[in-house]
Design goal:
The complex is a heterodimer. Chain A has one domain (81-326): Ribonucleotide Reductase, subunit A (Orthogonal Bundle), CATH 1.10.620. In chain A, 69% of the residues lie in helices and 0% in strands. Chain A is built from 13 helices and no strands. Chain B is of the alpha+beta class. Chain B has one domain: Phenol Hydroxylase P2 Protein (Alpha-Beta Complex), CATH 3.90.56. In chain B, 20% of the residues lie in helices and 40% in strands. Chain B contains 2 helices and 7 strands, in the order βαβββαβββ. Chain B has a 4-stranded antiparallel beta sheet, covered by helices on one side. A 3-stranded antiparallel beta sheet of chain B has the order 4-7-6. The radius of gyration of chain B is 12 Å and the shape is globular. Classes of the chains: A mainly alpha, B alpha+beta.
Chain lengths: 331, 89
Amino acid sequence: MNIDLQAREITPLRNTYDHVARHIGGDKVASRYQEATFGAQPMVNFHYRPTWDPGHELFDAGRSKIVLADWYVLKDPRQFYYATWTMTRAKQQDAMESNFQFVEQRGMLSMMSDALRDKTLEILMPLRHAAWGANMNNASICAYGFGTAFTAPAMFHAMDNLGVAQYLTRLGLAMGDAQTLDEGKQRWLEAPAWQGLRRLVEDSFVVQDPFELFVAQNLLIDGLLYPLVYGAFVDDHVALQGGTAVAMLTNFMPEWHDESARWIDAVVKAAATESEANRALLREWSRHWVDRAQAALAPIARLALGDQGEAVLNEAREQLQTRLDKAGLKA
Amino acid sequence: MSDVFIAFQANEESRPVIDAIVADNPHAVLSHPTGLVKVNAPNALTIRRETIEGLIGRSFDLQQIHVNLVTISGYIDEDDDQLTLSWKH
């Protein structure tokens, strides 16, 4: 019996959905990022106003003072949608697991001096709570923000912050035990050097404007915190004194910070470019929150790096200002 | 003068690779046999990692192309940043 196999070409009638084509124009083939983002924001048929905020619709651009003709301009240059974000993070997780194995097999942590170990834990353990705060804030940005292009990556960022907290927890357990984590929490709650940052984080919880919160947390607080802690303290100080293991076990943090800075800067730049009013607002928020962030981090910089702390923090502020300038927020 | 060619599975992952090849090789011609995307070019064709990274907005290891690569014609010269097909041996 002859079985006659044939290949049939079935070409699509259109290249993508109308609600996507409306944003990318014509009949172009759309990427998965575009299909996951454009036209995904609910715009109509909200039915009841929320009982917890009757002044706004469920999704309402009016919750922010930032005004955009089209909130889809806040595109993510990394083009993360769920699949690509998950796969990227999975690869990073594999690398981190490898690092934990490498360090544990060689007992690299026990080779650190007691003084270095204590200093490392003193600085890094309370940051679990700062990372949790960033998780809360990004979840808030996702909840109250408007526009899928803006809110979806905020949720990814929230989960990433949770990942940072979890890696710090694992580091604490590898260098000590459950009590090490409790001591870190006690420092966060009571040690004088930490109360500035703790107050800043807790004040950020009540920022109502989701875009202001985005700028405060992701651009300004993290923009100073990460270079200070993972650049200056871990890489330039702890690693050079025999704590290379710590740099390995926190490798995700600076890598992720640099990658997400591209997204954060692009969003701020897009909003600033739209209007002078937006730019003025962003400049005002930046000035306010960067001053607060620097003041809050100053005692921690001193705790971590002694006399060098202030100079290092100033340098971090200068580099952050360069980022702000590039995003169009030159004073 | 002979053509070199490279063929990939026609899917989402190979799309930016194809787009990069077309951007970097103005004489390249695409064809679409069933399930594939085939790129023909006279003499030589180069795939650049930097171009692909610019299109996807993330870092890309050039070796990732092998997941969807079907076939090649020509001699390969490759490093971390580019892969060139040509008849130079």
